[in-house]
Amino acid sequence: MTAPRLIVPDASLHASWVESFAEWPDPQDHHGDGLLLAGDLDLRVRADFSEWVRRLIEDEVRPRPGLVTATNRWLVDASGYLGSGQLRHHLGTDYLRDRGGHIGYSVRPSARGNGYAHVILQGMLHEGRIRGLGRVMVSCLADNAASAATIRRAGGVLCDEDDQPGLLRFWISLN
Ligand SMILES: CC(C)(COP(=O)(O)OP(=O)(O)OC[C@H]1O[C@@H](n2cnc3c(N)ncnc32)[C@H](O)[C@@H]1OP(=O)(O)O)[C@@H](O)C(=O)NCCC(=O)NCCS
């Protein structure tokens, strides 16, 4: 059994990713997987999926209109795709400053409860250090207990909660 590891998105994981996508009851739960970059692509089609993966990789160096550059990573093990993380390189939009923060992540429903969110967040914090960020903002909804626990375990310090009820905003120092 290979330990889960973070990789650069890889089009050869198409079948596993499609299988994982079918597990999600709510499309709104897809945090940090870069689906925004898919646009009109049909990710069930292999060629479209490959194009999306290309965009995810390019996202690191080429900003798209209205978006900032970001590092996208997938958590995988021998069974395939487990989840994803995204580090937005700076809080360059109102949405990121107000709600989105630097880092988003998600774990496929069938793989939850195994500590994988922690592994992904640690990996994305590492990417932030590599990029020289001194601290990152990570947010979650107040009723998302698993995400709040993940952020707190990583050293997240809760900041203002008042101006946007129901949203918890944390800062994590990378120094
Ligand atoms: C949030 C999410 C990433 C957690 O993934 P996961 O791999 O199941 O989480 P983990 O197994 O690493 O558990 C994380 C922590 O939450 C705790 N936890 C898990 N489920 C919980 C629950 N239902 N209630 C309270 N705590 C819970 C775990 O005990 C763990 O705490 P610890 O690190 O202090 O031990 C996953 O539920 C998900 O993908 N949700 C949809 C997307 C999302 O909400 N992303 C976060 C955006 S802010």
From TrEMBL:
SUPFAM superfamilies listed in its UniProt record: Acyl-CoA N-acyltransferases (Nat) (SSF55729)
Residues making up the signal peptide according to the UniProt record: none
Domain N-acetyltransferase: 71-155
Pfam entry (one): Acetyltransf_3
InterPro entries reported for this sequence: Acyl_CoA_acyltransferase, GNAT_dom
Identification of the protein by name: Acetyltransferase
Organism: Corynebacterium guangdongense
